[in-house]
Amino acid sequence: MGEDDGINGLPTHCYLMCPRQPPIMASMNFASDNTSGAAPEILEAIAQANDGQVPSYGADDLTASVTDRFKDVFETDLAAYLVATGTAGNSLSLACAVPPFGAVIAHEASHIAYDECNAPEFYMSGAKLTGIAGAHGKLSAEDVNRVLTKYGKGIVHRAQPAALSVAQATEAGTVYSRDDLSALSEVCRTHEIVFHMDGARIANAVAQLGRSPAELTWRAGVDILVFGATKNGALGVEAVIFFKKELAAEFEFRRKRGGHLFSKSRFLAVQMLAYLKDDLWLRLAHQANETAQRLARGLADIDGVEICHPVDANLVFAILPRGVDKALKAAGAQYHPWMVPGDAANGKMIRLVTNFSTTPEDVDRFLSVARDAVDV
Ligand SMILES: Cc1ncc(COP(=O)(O)O)c(C=O)c1O
């Protein structure tokens, strides 16, 4: 095994299960947006919601008010449901949109296609995911249209395309502009399929693009959004939002059947309410995006470092000179080697993730160790 293999010699993606994972340091930790704790505002709100007896399984007032809050945020009528993981949100929402004989088009390196252990296929009762390539983690309207045109809609031998799913921000840390989304939704309308958005990092995308949540979702043709919060300061909550409300008809039954209806739902709801209050979600995302920009700028100035994708959100993908990589690891920096299908930089690229709690000092310390290693 070479030095570029994953942490403790395990390949990329095995780190999550690695019992010998190095201890998480207070700084220079760029391993994931999930290594952080929760935002203090959210913890405080949970503590406040702890008093008293309230109805269970989502019949409480806090859960009821989440839908109204989302109606304000997105400036439209909608249906919203809470789950605790992005995988559940993606899988259960796609199951509402796709029949067992259907197909979902997604990027070949998308979380749903590559990192959810077939949960979408499981919940869709046999429907398939068709992964297609696209530069920097994005799908182009032309490529999606080409694939859909050839798919064989109506031919009894073929899976029937039923949804397009894009991640916003993408797994490569790029974002779809409003125009990108409108072009994709036009293709969805032409082929009569549902437009689904995995918004595990929707806050980072909205913060970066500086447009309203409505503009970047339903006004651009998105039918279903999985609105992530966990990566950006919540303890563990995501919302499945149906802008096309008729698609939500089966959701509650599917969520219960899938084991994702929380009995003490108030604790999911209160996290989401605190996250949305006074635009906390956008403030936290801005912080994460800013430290990612600082990191990317600093790295780009170091001899021999290559930045692999545009840095639009809180992810930086880079190829480091071997000496720099060694020095950073020796100094205790945490990050993962990254491999995704179809990427030319496979085997060389690392992924650095900032989150709402990353400080400029964390970044500067990392950059200073990297610069010193080049000077040696
Ligand atoms: C693009 C994307 N979607 C969804 C998720 C949600 O995953 P989880 O089920 O771990 O909450 C993640 C987490 O890494 C992700 O990166």
Report what the structure shows.
The protein has 376 residues and is of the alpha/beta class. It folds into two domains: 7-38 and 281-375, Aspartate Aminotransferase, domain 1, CATH 3.90.1150; 40-278, Aspartate Aminotransferase, domain 2. It is built from 13 helices and eleven strands. It has helices at 40-48, 61-74, 86-97, 111-114, 119-123, 141-150, 178-190, 202-209, 251-257, 266-276, 280-300, 322-330, 360-375, and strands at residues 79-83, 102-107, 128-132, 160-167, 194-199, 224-228, 238-242, 306-307, 315-319, 336-337, 349-353. Helix 1 crosses helix 10 (266-276) and helix 8 crosses helix 11. The longest helix has 21 residues, at 280-300. It starts with 39 loop residues before the first helix and ends with a helix. Mean pLDDT is 93; it is low at 1-26. Pyridoxal-5'-phosphate binds at residues 85-87, 111, 167, 171, 198, 200, 230. The site of pyridoxal-5'-phosphate has 9 residues, from helix 3.
